[in-house]
Specification:
Blueprint (H helix, E strand, L loop, with lengths): L14 H9 L1 H13 L2 H4 L5 E2 H8 L3 H13 L3 E5 L2 E4 L15 H8 L1 H6 L2 H7 L3 H6 L3 H7 L1 H25 L7 E5 L5 H9 L4 E6 L1 H12 L7 E5 L12 E5 L7 H14 L5 E6 L10 H13 L6 H10 L2 E8 L5 E7 L1
Length: about 350
């Protein structure tokens, strides 16, 4: 019978074996990256294919591609139904580009520019500076502006992050009683649109840089929240729009060091009236040694942007220095938390 029964491993894996698996985990991430980059999941969307057919479609070396597909099948992303024929598993289907919550863009983003930057992690640890800046000669957002293909992958990856987090944000915070919500650096508006759909009384302002707003404009115009959402372009290091009851910054403050974060927060403070609320959507680092994805994302922020994830106390201090008082931290069912603060 094909495929063969999976190997049975002992329940307790020796610690040196576990450490070896961790130390070579880049083999896994790069195998997934190449599979995503070649579009294998899209080619398998309508069913199993032979590796030679897939090699012809992807213009790759057939024996080499077989070795990749066999390895990826061992990870549970593909399955080899009979010798040489591969199909998607439920997990592997998320590498398709045409489904909600697709992991395709995230796999590509992490496998290209960010992978090269992580190769210089030691530089970031020794200096506290961004390895990305050193490898590419410029900050990541400048690079993405100058390389539209990479920027498009980044935007799709961020949209996927938002799609995963949106249900937790919409249900995790009570938006009742709010007249106008300002989404600062809100990207293409996917999070804001979901909040507006769940709160029909709400008006909103989507604020971002000019090129992002230009892309978001037709998307919002086609949505069913267009009449309640005004789009404004600008630079949050200079000012943010006035007129909001609540200002939301989702995964923005973690991009920056303390000084630049305070600059952004002070500009929000200047636009707000006394008693207005600020929401920071971030991955709050918990105390202790328990696994938490934010601890690794924190390293990625160091490597790629010289930003950081923060603890609740660190956010409290940052907010106090910017004229706010932290009022509550809501830990959602996603790794993301909602930090609420009030303008003093």
């Amino acid at each position: 019978m094909y495929p063969p029964e999976p190997h049975q491993f002992p329940e307790a894996i020796p610690p040196q074996v576990m450490l070896m698996q961790m130390a070579t985990s880049n083999w896994v991430s790069q195998s997934i990256y190449v599979t995503a980059k070649l579009g294998i999941a899209d080619l398998l969307a309508d069913g199993a294919k032979n590796y030679t057919e897939l090699a012809a479609a992807t213009k790759t070396n057939a024996p080499a591609l077989f070795r990749l597909l066999r390895a990826v099948a061992s990870l549970g992303i593909l399955t080899e139904w009979e010798p040489g024929y591969f199909d998607l598993t439920p997990m592997g289907a998320y590498l398709r580009t045409d489904i909600p919550d697709s992991m395709n863009a995230i796999s590509i983003m992490n496998g290209e520019e960010q992978y090269r930057a992580w190769g210089d992690l030691r530089y970031s640890i020794e200096t506290g500076k961004s390895a990305f800046d050193r490898v590419y000669g410029m900050p990541i957002f400048d690079y993405l502006r100058q390389n539209p293909a990479a920027g498009e992958v980044f935007d799709r990856a961020m949209t996927t992050h938002s799609t995963i987090e949106i249900p937790a944000l919409v249900t995790g915070y009570d938006f009742a009683g709010i007249d106008t919500l300002v989404d600062v650096a809100g990207g293409l508006g996917s999070t804001l649109s979901a909040i507006l759909e769940a709160n029909p009384q709400l008006q909103a302002i989507l604020f971002d840089v000019e090129e992002v707003i230009a892309t978001a404009t037709p998307l919002i115009a086609r949505s069913n929240v267009a009449e309640r959402c005004r789009l404004v372009s600008g630079d949050f290091f200079k000012s943010v729009p006035t007129g909001g009851d609540v200002y939301m910054l989702k995964h923005i403050i973690h991009d920056w060091d303390d000084d630049r974060s305070i600059s952004i927060l002070q500009n929000c403070h200047a636009a707000m009236s006394a008693g207005s609320k600020l929401l920071l959507i971030e991955q709050v680092i918990p105390p202790g040694n328990d696994p938490f994805v934010g601890k690794l994302i924190d390293l990625n922020m160091l490597v790629c942007q010289a930003g950081c994830e923060r603890t609740e106390d660190e956010y409290r201090s940052l907010l106090q220095r910017s004229g706010f008082e932290l009022t509550q931290t809501i830990f959602t069912h996603a790794p993301t938390s909602i930090i609420e603060a009030i303008r003093l």
